[in-house]
Write a structure and sequence with these properties.
Number of strands: 9
Strand order of the largest sheet: 1-2-7-4
Strand content: 5-15%
Largest sheet: 4 strands, mixed
Helix content: 40-55%
Number of helices: 17
Radius of gyration: 25 Å
Shape: globular
Length: 492
């Protein structure tokens, strides 16, 4: 039969039509699903993404498709929410419907479905209640933790003084100082900044964070079965996970041998006591796997985001020395040479505005941690089925033009009125919002204020001679400044 045979031509056309129809239906299974760019077969919309800064692509796409739209990466459709009003509506007004966590391949392999950040259902609720109450019991928001932060900031100042004004890279010491605060709650312990155990923990968490935001990780999440053959992502993730889990397991195994119900020294002790109390219950939540997951989550969140924010803060103070001087003048006026206290914040509107702007501009968790719908939901006129991955894009909130006059610039006046008084912005939600907001928000705010003020009280930060200060973020899951050298000149 000739290829020119009308029957053959008709058959080919029919097959193409059926394939297009099938693909179109597969692409748009649900009526009134949020709109978005047309996906290609197999790859979806991955060709549109800036793999180093996917949050920027997602923000830009909202200008065309609106504040609620969809993209497809590989075979998975996800819904993107942009702008303060939309994100708040979902996370606060529809909190239950948007409180799930999706299955993301690399996150599952790095962090599992245990603990608090990536857990779901009743286990997540139990772990979150336990975490919040335990953090409060061990000092979050109280004078006890304020004293620890004050003591640790003294240690950090002493270490920085040892450089005698010469250039140094600050990542390790700032991360170590911040890490010691959450370590004191989890382990009732403090590490020296050069302690091999602490250095190993920091390295694992830093590498995990970089890995989770890398272009290869995004490809792996989109095509896990294929990419596992071509990249080392899976093996690298397993290596870091196993090392961290081994340390955590060895730690709580040792503590279990010394456990005293009447003298609970730290979060692990508190968890182990709950574990003993729960044993008769057939629905166990205080399991070893949940303990490993929870400590893993708290180490990562407690070290990474606050230290990254402080590093942005010092870089920005070097970039804008006139702002640094204004902060120091306010410190001199309100505190002088006394020890900074959390209560001073109310008397220091400019410093408070600068810290808020560091968090806003730094945009530390640009894509947010992904959410998932827990049930079918109609949201802002669109139907989103149960189990859909949802990205409440924090970049779009912290850079919302309707709430911030100069969203792309570092501009502390976003948080000041004409008289220089501090003013809140409802769109300032760097810790996210709703039921999945950061459990350690209160602790992080206290740390940021006390460390930042202590450092600028004691030093003027400058770039080394001839150095160029680059505000381009590094490639990572968090929006981290690239490594930089700085000089800390003691204030006389």
């Amino acid at each position: 039969m000739s290829i020119a045979d009308p029957v053959t031509i008709l058959s080919i056309i029919l097959c193409i039509f059926v394939a297009i129809l099938y693909y179109g239906r597969k692409r748009n299974i649900y009526h009134n699903f949020p709109p978005g760019p047309t996906p290609f077969p197999i790859i979806g919309n991955i060709h549109l993404m800036d793999m180093k800064k996917p949050y920027e692509t997602l923000h830009q796409l909202s200008e065309k498709y609106g504040p609620v739209y969809s993209v497809q990466l590989g075979e998975e459709k996800m819904v993107i929410l942009t702008g303060y009003e939309t994100v708040k509506d979902a996370l606060v007004n529809h909190a239950d419907e948007f409180s799930g966590r999706p299955k993301v391949q690399l996150f599952d392999e790095l962090f599992g479905r245990h603990g608090i950040i990536f857990a779901n259902n009743e286990s997540w609720k139990v772990m979150r209640r336990f975490t919040l109450s335990t953090l409060r019991d061990f000092g979050m928001g109280k004078e006890t933790i304020e004293n620890r932060i004050g003591e640790e900031s003294d240690c950090l100042v002493e270490r920085i003084n040892s450089y005698k004004g010469k250039p140094f890279e600050n990542t390790k010491i700032i991360t170590a100082a911040v890490a010691n605060i959450i370590v004191s709650i989890i382990l009732n312990h403090r590490f020296d900044y050069e302690d091999p155990t602490l250095l190993k923990l920091m390295n694992i968490i830093n590498e995990n964070t970089k890995l989770a935001g890398s272009p290869m990780a995004q490809l792996y999440n989109a095509f896990p079965s294929v990419m596992s053959w071509f990249t080392g992502v899976q093996k690298t993730a397993a290596k870091y996970r196993d090392e961290l889990h081994k340390f955590i397991e060895e730690t709580f195994t040792a503590q279990k041998k010394q456990l005293d119900v009447n003298d609970q020294r730290n979060l692990i002790d508190r968890f182990l006591v709950k574990q003993q109390e729960e044993k008769p219950n057939p629905e166990l939540f205080f399991t070893n796997k949940n303990l490993i997951g929870l400590v893993n989550d708290l180490f990562g969140a407690g070290m990474e985001t606050t230290s990254t924010t402080l590093r942005w803060g010092l870089l920005l103070m070097m970039k804008y020395p006139e702002m640094q001087r204004k902060v120091q003048n306010e410190i001199d006026k309100v505190i002088g040479t006394s020890a900074p206290q959390a209560a001073h914040r109310k008397e220091m509107p400019y410093t408070d505005a600068v810290i808020h702007e560091i968090q806003r501009y730094g945009n530390i968790i640009p894509t947010n941690v992904p959410h998932a719908t827990t049930q079918d939901v109609t949201f802002r006129g669109y139907f989103i089925p149960k189990g859909t991955q949802v990205i409440p894009l924090l970049t779009s909130v912290l850079q919302d033009k309707n709430h911030f006059k100069k969203p792309k610039e570092f501009y502390p006046e976003h948080f000041l009125d004409a008289s220089g008084n501090f003013v809140k912005s409802e769109a300032f939600i760097p810790f996210s919002a709703g039921k999945r907001s950061c459990a350690g928000e209160t602790l992080a705010k206290m740390e940021l204020f006390m460390f930042f003020v202590k450092l600028l009280q004691n030093f003027t930060f400058q770039a080394p001679p001839g150095a160029t200060l680059d505000l381009t973020p590094a490639v990572s899951f968090t929006c981290t400044p690239m490594s930089y050298m700085m000089c800390a000149v003691p204030r006389t």
